[in-house]
Amino acid sequence: MGFTRPQKGFISIDCGSNEDYIDERTKIRYISDKELIDTGIVKTVSPDSSTNLQQNAKNLRSFPQGTRNCYTLRPEQGKNNNYLIRARFFYGNYDGKNQTPVFDLHLGVNEWKTVKLTNAGPNRIVHSDIIHVP
After folding, report:
1. How wide is the angle at C-alpha 20 spanned by C-alphas 16 and 23, nearest 5°?
2. Is 38 helix (H, G, I), strand (E, B) or coil?
3. Which of 4, 70, 100, 126 can pair with 89 through a Cys bridge, CB separation 3.0 to 4.6 Å?
């Protein structure tokens, strides 16, 4: 399947996907994270949790090892630009423990926030946005 380049200024990453795709509902092009990170374990959310989920929430990358696991992103625009980074997290009982995790997000060396999935909204997804100025 051929893909057109993403709209300039946007990179939509599906963490845990094995391939790039276009979301049928939103028409957003997602790229797999497999070329952006070399740590973590790909998991699938529990079938009980996956009803009515968008494709980008059905798989995930878990990081049970290490204290920091880093993605390497290189936007076409390069340095000296501001970037909106929007992250979404969904637990989906992928590990069968029914225990929502708590973890820290960093952007470079700076702590962005602590993600607590117990604070998830009605659709059980936590959203977080930040404007990053490299």
Report:
1. 95
2. coil
3. 126
According to DSSP, residue 117 is labeled: G
Residues 92/45, Cβ–Cβ less than 8 Å: yes
Task: List C-alpha distances in Å: 128 to 62, 89, 90.
Answer: 18, 9, 12
Whether pTM exceeds 0.85: no
Q: Is 115 helix (H, G, I), strand (E, B) or coil?
A: strand
47: left (phi over 0), alpha (psi -120 to 50) or beta: alpha
Give the 3-state secondary structure of residue 119.
Answer: helix
Pick from 87, 29, 86, 85: nearest CA to 55: 29
pLDDT in tens, 12-44: 899 999 999 999 888 889 999 999 999 999 998
Give the chain's largest Cα–Cα span. 44
For the segment 71-130, what is each residue's pLDDT rounded down to a tens digit?
A: 888 777 777 788 888 898 888 888 888 888 889 998 888 899 999 887 665 567 888 888
Contact between residue 66 and residue 48 where contact means Cβ atoms under 8 Å apart:
no
